[in-house]
Write a sequence for this structure.
């Protein structure tokens, strides 16, 4: 069945037929890709944040340079360097692994500053309190500082993850068959660009809407935890 709006034709049969393959591309690749990249990226981000907070100048500069490079170059360029550039050095990477590496490095660069700022937001008196009761630096960091910094970092990190879900669409450029790639493949045979790309956009929106709800729930629970 088709509907006409001016010069635009909406093929509802195509929309219904293509919805499941596009959705499965999101469930099979987009979400797992985002989760894996985010987890690895957080490890990188925490490491870089601690380097930035370190009293060792070399570590500070390594972190500064890394963050500057990541934040100063487009994600698409980073993906291209990892997937198309590294094979020239004899390092061959599969599309999925290449996407995870590039996305993780990108998350690490942006989230590092979020984590650093969150740690710095905790009053210095909390460090002194930890030292007073006999805790060392890492014990104080783990038991006193990080739990308080988490409440501050959750909103921006959640936003980073939601943005990452959308950024996975760039993985289509290196042939990862995620959500947007599936829409492109179907469009290549039907040539119904507006319908299929709008359908892909709708599914992205659904994913991000659900993630926003989860973010709000986590924030509310953290608020109750801190209030106790």
């Amino acid at each position: 069945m088709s509907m006409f709006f001016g010069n635009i034709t909406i093929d509802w049969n195509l929309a219904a037929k293509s919805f499941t393959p596009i959705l499965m591309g999101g469930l099979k690749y987009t979400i797992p890709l985002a989760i894996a990249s985010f987890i690895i990226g957080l490890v990188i981000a925490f490491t870089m944040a601690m380097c930035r907070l370190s009293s060792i100048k070399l570590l500070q500069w390594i972190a500064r340079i890394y963050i500057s490079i990541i934040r100063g170059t487009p994600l698409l360029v980073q993906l291209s360097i990892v997937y198309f550039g590294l094979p020239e050095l004899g390092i061959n990477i599969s599309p999925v692994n290449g996407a995870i590496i590039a996305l993780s490095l990108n998350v690490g660069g942006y989230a590092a500053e979020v984590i650093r700022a969150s740690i710095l937001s905790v009053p210095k008196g909390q460090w002194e309190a930890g030292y007073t009761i006999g805790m060392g630096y890492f014990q104080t960091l783990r038991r006193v500082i990080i739990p308080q910094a988490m409440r501050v970092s959750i909103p921006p990190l959640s936003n980073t993850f939601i943005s990452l879900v959308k950024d996975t669409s760039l993985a289509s450029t290196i042939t990862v068959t995620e959500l947007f790639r599936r829409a492109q493949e179907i469009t290549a045979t039907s040539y119904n660009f507006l319908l299929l790309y709008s359908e892909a956009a709708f599914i992205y929106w659904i994913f991000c809407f659900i993630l926003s709800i989860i973010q709000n729930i986590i924030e509310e629970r953290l608020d109750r935890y801190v209030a106790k």
Q: What stands out?
A: DSSP finds eight helices and two strands in the chain. Helices lie at 12-53, 57-72, 75-85, 95-121, 124-132, 137-167, 179-190, 193-227. The longest helix spans residues 12-53. Confidence is low (pLDDT under 50) at residues 1-6.
